[in-house]
Amino acid sequence: MSWTKKILRVNLSDGSCTPEPLNMAWANEYLGQRGLASKYLVEEIDPTCDPLGPDNKLIMATGPLTGTMASTGGRYAVITKGPLTGAIACSNSGGFLGNEMKNAGWDMIIFEGKSPEPVYLYIEDDLAELRPAADLWGKSVWETDDLLHQMHQDPLLRIACVGRSAEAGCLYAGIINDKHRAAGRSGVGTVMASKNLKAVAIRGTKGVGNIDNPEKFFQAVNDAKAVLAENAVTGQGLPTYGTQVLMNVINGVGALPARNMREVGFEGAENISGEAMHEPRPSDGKPNLTTNAACFGCTIACGRISTVDKNHFSVQNKPEYWGASGGLEYEAAWALGADTGVDDLDALTYANFLCNEDGYDPISFGATVAAAMEMFENGQITTEHTGGIELKFGSAEALTKMAELVAHGEGFGLDLGLGSKRLCEKYGRPELSMTVKGQEFPAYDPRGIQGMGLGYATSNRGACHLRGYTVASEVLGIPVKTDPTVTEGKAELVKAFQDATALVDSSGLCLFTTFAWTMDNIAPQIDAACEGDWSVERCLEAGERIWNMEREFNKAAGITGKDDTLPKRLLSEAVKQGPTAGQVNRLDEMLPEYYQIRGWNEDGEVTEETRQRLGL
Predict the structure, then answer these.
(1) What is the average per-residue pLDDT within 582-602?
(2) CB of 563 closer than 8 Å to CB of 458
(3) For 224-238, what is the mean pLDDT?
(4) Residue 293: which H helix or E strand, with range?
(5) What predicted TM-score, i.e. pTM, was given to this entire model?
(6) 3-state secondary structure of 152
(7) pLDDT tens for residues 532-579?
(8) Fold assignment, 6-203
(9) What per-residue confidence (pLDDT) applies to 77?
């Protein structure tokens, strides 16, 4: 069965923690995690509610494979209405918290209302209670984690919490578990802080023993692990270089955006790449990368643990940052680096430490700083706004100072905490915000990779690479190679990736497995773990159902087909040099076909026929 069939409903307004049975009819349609929790959210909140008001809900959810022996089966997700976008938000995290939640006997935790005072939720198997957290409020993620471990004297306690950025209202604050694993995008941490909920601390000892067909499951899992080990990406590239293996690759194919996506191609890419993280620094002879790391049950181990040179300007007088901590991943390295024109690897690592320590999204942060840098260059933002700081492209000092200000919720950091869309509107240059539905772009230029442009434009959570990673096909040739510069066939490709991703996100598995696995590897694991027949076809239909349900929520929240677009810069300003010179994104060639393939009308609305077919 794999589900525990129990959820915990936490009413923060009255302080109650109430167990209730999982809706198994919904579980059999939406599986778990992203899909199932989104179904609960859709049914329980008004889509027009204020994301930071008490009527919004915050849901932490596991998938049916979370906590099992399936490789990467440690994921959990946070689902809510996001304050950055006003759209449905689902942010996925690894580490060890998801496994702990499942081992404590809970599929899902639903937080509703708002506590009158700061609290944290403590769970020990069936025990669940809200406890005072006034002494934790105002503390960073790292401080909060340490204090809760000291308080409970249990090294196996798993903690997810928000930092000072969320308390200060940064609209892209995340929820950090295990100190440097993040449910990082769309402002889910901002919602958590708005409810006066500082942390969730979980200890689970029950184990996960309710697999539907153990013998069949063990075989499917072992077969799938062998595929991961033998694959060049999951068996070699990701363990060695992490996602940073992509920095030089994407730069080489002409799809690495730079300086607020004004340019494509970054001359400093090699200096901030995965390869550079392995190289000894001239200053101290030590590499940036200390070791790799793995989340619960993961056989890939793509995580990075890094150190900053003690003599680097950013940490010279800050010994608290001399120890090893979560290192750069590709998206963060791009946003903090190429997008701001900074190629100082230690400066990026320090800024990333701050993002982890105080819980805010490095993608949105870096992209927002890049927009501010362009406005500084154009004169809309001046040193009077920034507290005397020259906010110039390429300035590592400016980048690290801005990271400190956002972490503490101080000065110009409060403006940066608004995100790129609101910042650019405030200073009179809305066209310089590189966002979709209010969320900042990740590290792939849609002029160089056409399918990603369509994926960004139609993503239900705003610009996001993890809602349909067509880079796998368009650049890496997984599962088949397609030409990144053409639009033909991209509508079908994007839909296929989006539906499959929705299913994987709902299972409890990590999306990185799909560099090696197809649905023929994933469906047998779900089928053996869960009751009923989970064929490839049923899995993909569930993914399609989830995607359309999210679309319907967004429509009710006021987001329409008119929002399925890209910034003018990417549609009209051609790449100036490199392999993709002359290219713009040709969204207008792909979007009508995408709507048709989806079973939507020409305005991008889900038709009644599609609703009926998917049982929405």
Answers:
(1) 98
(2) no
(3) 96
(4) strand 289-293
(5) 0.97
(6) helix
(7) 999 999 999 999 999 999 999 999 999 999 999 999 999 999 999 999
(8) Aldehyde Ferredoxin Oxidoreductase;  A, domain 1 (3.60.9)
(9) 98
- CB burial string 531-557: b at 16+ within 10 A, e below: beebebebbbbbbbbbbbbbbbbbeeb
Token readout for 162 is 């928000």
What contacts 527, CB < 8 A, 6 or more positions away? Answer: 216, 220, 533, 534, 535
- The residues of the chain that CATH labels 1.10.569.10 are 243-252+256-439
Q: How far apart are CA 130 and CA 123, in angstroms?
A: 9
Q: State the pLDDT at residue 328.
A: 97
Q: Are 104 and 204 in contact (CB under 8 A)?
A: yes
**Could you tell me which CATH number the domain at 467-614 has?**
1.10.599.10
- pLDDT band of residue 208 (cuts 50, 70, 90) is confident
CA-wise closest residue to 466 among 189, 63, 185, 62:
185
- CATH class as words, domain 243-252+256-439: mainly alpha
| All CATH 3.60.9.10 domain ranges in the chain, comma separated | 6-203
Across the chain, how many H-helices and E-strands are there?
26, 19
- Could you give phi then psi for residue 508, rounded to 5 degrees? 105, 0
Token pair, residue 427, equals: 């200073």
pLDDT band at 182 (very low <50, low <70, confident <90, very high): very high
